[in-house]
């Protein structure tokens, strides 16, 4: 069952009913100000940090779903309705929601009134703009009242949720019922809670006309025991011109409108963030300097200025997504590669895992591991921003090479509540940096001085950070010469050191200290893959002695995996704190895990020995389902203290045998390593949203973006997805399809073209911007083989890498297969 359709020309997904299986959302904002917008007008906004600088409230875990947003109410005599259906849920006609790239358009009709609410965050400014277009499509005059409504958050979203004894006495607002800004009359509400504390910031809610009334007290507008579904003020057709003092401040304007038959009017509503630029951050306690707000409002106080901002936003995305464009027979593939997958990669660049409809933005910040992996999906789009992101991540590293697992986006400091100890983290820094170096050729980044633990007095070149990342794993090995897992590796729920039959016992390791000895075969695969990339970096940097030492360590790890990490038909997952096997045929449950199968084969381990093919065959036989590849089998039927959180989930959900979409692309890439073309594409399609659109009633999450997980075959809701948008699935699926299946990927020497195409793809063209050149690539797949040679600008070259030449700006490449 479908609830909408793709509009590829306009790069939009068009939702045709407000009652989608779950709220289907969009992200507005590309820089510092962000809004989450659902198909029914729900959501919230914040400046830089969803925890510390939240402007509007949102209620998670609430009923009805998607409670609180930036709402427009229309009162037409006794009928009260919203263009997006929520929160009044009055039935509407001709409903559509068009989620585009950085904007959302919600439109519906009721009783001969057509209302369209278009929302965006403009490039270069810290605000959300909502343009309301309202038209009388009937034959008689309409007398309407239109209300805006937002509920202000008291900035710190955690404190806002729990410190009621204080917060119910701090809310402050200021209102200008009518002001002239430029040539336009406007009305403005200023939310200044915290300004009294000299925190230098405030929010403004404004409308591009002189309003007929306003409210800033939630109790006045809603009613003491009222509901946003039927606010007291709207029901009574009035405004109380209330001034919030303590309690809960809101922003609402009332506009009384008369519409002749066929007449249309437009209004722009603004919610923005502002702060004083002066050293004098206050004139006196509680009185704000409005000049920054006035400057913002003047830029967007007419519908024409809104339209200019929307055009600029569309141009921004058109230019950005021109870096990688594919054209082939499979239009679902094209829309994912060209539009939605890259768009989602940009959202993960902005958000990491911090703010969604599943992540409240109040706990997790930017993930060390997460952000390094996300970089794989956006480095070709915004290399300058990727460079800064690498430096920010590296600055949270400790001097021994380990790192904070998360850091806050506002302060860029490590999250001490979570701390460190996830032993895969250091190697991801090498992965992200190598991707940047291949994409840009900018080796100057290795000389950039970067702090340790954000202490600039301890700054060292980024190359030293990479060295310590590699050496951390090298010096933290267990009894089987495999990497110590620490608190966990990529699978945060596999906590193998949380229990021992001898509490308090110390375990000897090959590292500098004694401690828990649980080992990870997955990290071993990472060590081989990214250790080789680090060796390549050393080679280019002229560090021959270090390169040789690194390759020797990598060879030792390769042998250790074959010696102690192979279980006969697949790779082991780990050894626990008692050196018992995890992910082995010897286990009752959890006999095989997906992670080491994908990553070890990606690293080339076992390919020449014939083991890689066996591992992939085991994945297909045991882990595969019609909805994707499960993370493990059989599911854990009871809780295992020695394994930690992994067995705390019911069978089929999340890490306990769910289809964890993030690592399905590892299998797709691994299949290209062993040259199984059709299988690689099959695993890609199974979790790809565009191919799941027709089963949206089962899948439930948005059919235009990836989700973190899908319930596995052991679950009651097999095939149901959760945790959409903010997931490493976005970057890894784009990596698998663009670099390995379609086969165009950056390398240190130039642009490598090595497609591994399924039989269903006969011909394709790819436009790829690489460094400062454009590559127009034509591939014919009639023979279904791998690349034999390339014709570049009329001349044949051997191999499958087009060497980069800074003097050549256009490369026309024909691939001979």
From TrEMBL:
InterPro entries (UniProt xref): 6-hairpin_glycosidase_sf, 6hp_glycosidase-like_sf, Gal_mutarotase_sf_dom, GH65_N, GH94_catalytic, GH94_Enzymes, GH94N_CBP, Glyco_hydrolase_94_b-supersand
Keywords, alphabetical: Glycosyltransferase, Hydrolase, Plasmid, Transferase
Calcium in keyword set: no
Keyword Hydrolase belongs to the record: yes
Annotated Glycosyl hydrolase 94 supersandwich domain residues: 11-302
Record domain Glycosyl hydrolase 94 catalytic: where: 316-743
Domain of life of the native organism: Bacteria
Gene Ontology terms for molecular function: carbohydrate binding; glycosyltransferase activity; hydrolase activity
BP GO terms, sorted: carbohydrate metabolic process
SUPFAM superfamilies named in the record: Galactose mutarotase-like, Six-hairpin glycosidases
A Pfam family recorded for this sequence: GH94_b-supersand
Protein name: Glycoside Hydrolase Family 94 candidate b-glycan phosphorylase
Organism for this UniProt entry: Lachnospira eligens (strain ATCC 27750 / DSM 3376 / VPI C15-48 / C15-B4) (Eubacterium eligens)
